[in-house]
Design brief:
The complex is a heterodimer of chains A (237) and B (135).
Chain A lengths: L8 H13 L4 H7 L8 E7 L5 H14 L4 E7 L8 E3 L14 E7 L11 H9 L5 E8 L13 E6 L6 H5 L3 H4 L2 E4 L7 H15 L7 E3 L8 H11 L1
Parallel strand pairs in A: 1-5, 1-6, 2-4, 2-5, 6-7, 7-8
Helix pairs in contact in A: 1-4, 2-4
Chain B lengths: L7 E5 L8 H12 L3 E4 L6 H11 L3 E6 L4 H14 L6 E6 L6 H6 L4 E4 L4 H11 L5
Parallel strand pairs in B: 1-2, 1-3, 3-4, 4-5
The chains are: A alpha/beta (237), B alpha/beta (135).
Chain lengths: 237, 135
């Protein structure tokens, strides 16, 4: 029985690069390195730019680590249409979890792919699931209303919004809130949060009466609401 | 030889220096030059910086320091990087570094030092000239 995670960081990182650039397939890597899949939960965290995804991720990682779970994160940021480059700025908000061999964070740029992810995100997640991580979390780019590709990869989708991101009508539109398993109303210290919270609860109740979609009030920067989110995740896993 | 086909750079600020205007200007310039840039933020330990470089499989580490601790911190980071398998990562530095310290730093794992007044273009051209990809 190998120790988790199974690979040294350097080897894992290099393998991710090979997958991203198409020089080796994930199946070949898994077979070559004789990796074995464990029961990993894959959580997708999505929402508009600046809503607090990375801040929330930092909290989630800490709590999973307290439970002795190993965590891998893929954090995606947009590639510049003009230059082909990218500023990968999600990791900077997850600093409290650094230098911990039970945490592996990889930043990826979309590299022109639409849908909220990098084209090879699914394969990278596959590799991470086979590398001995208990939880794999994907942070999509800051999404608008149409980037829903995360639904193909994650078991559970957490969609964030905030009181400044629009009213009830906005929430009713097609897009990420339709595919969410859990909705988080972050930045609840902002004005108008109570009203939006009630609107969201009404909306999720009428959307699909078979599936219960919790709406969680949160101030991620102050750890408020994180326990409730973890409980909701626990109920799903 | 790198497996990458896009240059990935880590821009890092080690130690207790909180002046990050230069690091941010450079991060943006590198992005505009077509590179994928991971900016670590300020007050990073050598261990944090090396962990980032390894996990992100970067081609280049750019250290920015204005506090004067470069002779201590830069070689320490370069050594840690080597120990963790990152000896093929180009390590360059900039900030407030006297000319006379260049020799010591270049003997201790730093490829080149860019002094105050260097243009972003010069730094970008240097990185591009040193990173070779698999065809």
């Amino acid at each position: 029985m190998r120790n988790k995670p199974y690979l040294k960081p350097r080897e894992l990182a290099r393998s991710i690069t090979k997958i991203e650039n198409g020089s080796e397939s994930v199946e070949d890597i898994i077979s070559r390195l004789k990796l074995e899949e464990v029961e990993a939960s894959v959580i997708g965290v999505t929402g508009p730019p600046g809503v607090g995804k990375s801040t929330l991720l930092d909290q989630l990682i800490r709590r999973f680590r307290k439970d002795n779970k190993t965590v891998a994160v893929v954090a995606i940021d947009p590639t510049s249409f003009l230059s082909g480059g990218a500023l990968l700025g999600d990791r900077i908000r997850m600093q409290k979890n650094s230098v911990d061999s039970g945490v592996f964070i990889r930043s990826m740029a979309t590299r022109g792919h639409l849908g909220g992810l990098n084209e090879r995100t699914g394969e990278v997640v596959s590799l991470l699931k086979n590398s001995g991580f208990d939880v794999v979390i994907i942070e999509t780019v800051g999404v608008g209303q149409t980037e829903v590709e995360i639904i193909k990869i994650a078991d559970t989708i957490v969609a964030l919004t905030s009181p400044t991101h629009g009213d009830e009508i906005q929430m009713m539109k097609a897009g990420i809130y339709e595919i969410a398993d859990i909705i988080v109303l972050n930045k609840c210290d902002y004005k108008g949060s109570e009203r939006i919270y009630r609107d969201l609860c009404n909306m999720t109740h009428s959307m699909n009466s078979k599936k219960e979609i919790p709406v969680i009030k949160m101030i991620a920067a102050e750890q408020e609401g994180v326990s409730e989110l973890l409980e909701a995740l626990e109920n799903r896993i | 030889m790198s497996e990458n086909n896009i240059i990935r750079v880590c821009v890092a600020k080690p130690g207790l220096d909180g002046h990050d205007r230069g690091a941010k200007v450079l991060s943006r310039a590198l992005k505009d030059a077509g590179m994928e840039v991971i900016y670590t933020g300020i007050r990073q330990t050598p261990e944090q910086i090396v962990e980032t470089c390894i996990q992100e499989d970067v081609n280049c580490l750019l250290l920015s320091l204005l506090s004067g601790a470069h002779n201590h911190l830069f070689p320490k980071i370069a050594t840690l990087l080597k120990e963790q398998g990152g000896d093929d990562i180009l390590v360059i530095g900039g900030g407030v570094i006297p000319d006379e310290d260049d020799e010591f730093l270049m003997k201790n794992g730093i490829d080149k030092i860019f002094h105050t007044g260097t243009s972003t273009e010069e730094t970008i051209e240097y990185i591009k000239s040193k990173i070779k990809f698999n065809a």
